[in-house]
Amino acid sequence: MNYDIKDKTILVTGANRGIGKAIVESFIEHGATKVYAAVRQLNSVSSLVEQYGLRVVPIPVDLGDPQSIVAAAQTAPDVQIVINNAGVFQAGTPLAENAIAALEFQMKINVYGLLYMAQAFSPILKANGGGVFVQINSVASLKGFPDSATYCASKAAAYSITQALRELLSEQDTLVLSVHPGPIATDMGDAAGMSQVAQPPALVADGIIKALKAGDFHVFPDSIAKQMGDVYKSFAQNVIEVSSS
After folding, report:
1. DSSP structural state of residue 240
2. Helix (H) and strand (E) counts for the chain?
3. Residue 4 counted as domain residue
4. Taking every annotated instance into account, which residue ranges of this chain make up the domain Ketoreductase (predicted)?
């Protein structure tokens, strides 16, 4: 199943910077009619509103606040594509004193936030013809790294949920994408110490658009991600993407 974003209404969480901002810009340039910029602080997307006018509609969403997600779903009943991009990163090993607190914090945003987004917006996507649900995961969802183990664990959990959503939402003709960027030039990438190898966030936006046209589930948008994706491809096709129903 492929999907054309032209003339569609989009919602992007974490739209004020990094990958989220690049997605807003790219989707509008590729013909999206309207983008709900879902952010914690509405003034953080003022530059996007200035640039694109009424095509960008700021709405308050905090993935740590389920009520804000429910309210956003009520505010945006015309959404056809939901891109859950917002997330948090906190470095630390499993043996660090704050490991449990770090894992709880990242699970709350990166996993529970995904669940709340899916629960709130799946009925809207169904009512609007099926549409698309995109989850920004990470190559860290496929491999654990000692210095960011709790982050990797949260992304692995999010990837597992995304797999389930793919099968469940296919019943309502909703296309689900799992996006696995490598090091990207964002504030989060800098915090992870990846600035020297990071690549432009526009690659992620372009990768999503290409995957929608091709009907792909997995998206490995940058060069490092593609290397992992090439190795992972056989397992993904023969295990992950095979329906369990």
Report:
1. I
2. 9, 7
3. no
4. 8-187
Could you tell me the pTM of the whole model? Answer: 0.93
If you average pLDDT over every residue of the chain, what do you get? 93
Inside any domain, residue 2: no
Spatial separation of the C-alpha atoms in residues 104 and 208, rounded to whole Å: 29
User: Cα 188 to chain center, whole Å?
Assistant: 14
Judge whether residue 26 has pLDDT over 70. Answer: yes
Structural domain containing residue 197? 9-240
pLDDT per position as a tens digit, 151-191: 999 999 999 999 999 999 999 999 999 999 988 876 564 55
| Contact by Cβ (8 Å): 120, 73 | yes
Query: What total number of domains does the chain contain?
Result: 1
CA 245 to CA 239: how far, in whole Å?
13
Residue 33 belongs to some domain of the structure: yes
Instruction: Provide the CATH number for the domain around residue 111.
Output: 3.40.50.720
Residue 130: phi and psi, rounded to 5, are 115, -65
Going by their DSSP bridges, the two strands 56-60 and 175-179 should be labelled as: unpaired
Q: Please tell me the distance from the alpha carbon of residue 32 to that of residue 192, in angstroms, as a whole number.
A: 32
102-112 residue pLDDT tens: 999 999 999 99
> Would 1 be classed as within a structural domain?
no
